[in-house]
Write a structure and sequence with these properties.
With 158 residues, the chain is an alpha/beta fold. The protein contains 7 helices and 5 strands. Strands 2-1-3-4-5 form a 5-stranded mixed beta sheet, sandwiched between helices. Helix 6 links the parallel strand 4 and strand 5.
């Protein structure tokens, strides 16, 4: 049995976290890590105590909102937002942490991640929001697809 690398381990966990999602369109998981320790997790879905979209129906579908647009027209929070909120609720400092996420963040989440002091983002799949990657680059936050990360050799800059 081959032992997974740390990046593989944390990305596998994001996929498990995503399975808790209550979103009808896309299941997203996020894990914040510092010094090989998980600080917070999050998945996309409605706020605590609010009826899930599988009961009410998807507002974005009802309004024909395309993916990557009009994020405010949704009953749910994004996985990255929920991870930031979880850390804040429990008094966990996420500055200088790495975000592992099943999808690259949208622009709203990117702005939150920049101000939260995240130093690196590793995502499994892209997302239709080029401005978010441009802003991460401008903020000097490394953003890499998981394929780029696992293709590195040991000792390469992480």
């Amino acid at each position: 049995m081959e032992r997974p690398s740390w990046d593989e381990y944390f990305m596998d966990i994001t996929s498990l976290v995503a399975r808790r999602s209550t979103c009808m369109r896309r299941q997203v998981g996020a894990v914040m890590v510092k010094e090989k320790n998980i600080l917070a997790t999050g998945y996309n879905g409605t706020p605590s105590g609010i009826t899930h979209c599988d009961v009410t129906g998807c507002l974005r579908e009802q309004l024909n909102v395309p993916s990557g647009e009009r994020h405010e027209l949704c009953r749910g929070l994004h996985a990255e937002q929920n991870a930031i909120i979880q850390a804040a609720r429990h008094g966990v400092n996420i500055s200088d942490s790495v975000l592992y996420c099943t999808n690259s963040p949208c622009i709203i989440c990117t702005k939150m991640l920049i101000n939260a002091g995240i130093r690196k983002v590793v995502y499994l799949q892209g997302y239709s929001d080029s401005l978010s990657l441009e802003m991460l680059d401008e903020a000097e936050i490394e953003a890499l697809s998981f394929a780029e990360v696992v293709g590195r050799k040991p000792g390469d800059r992480a």
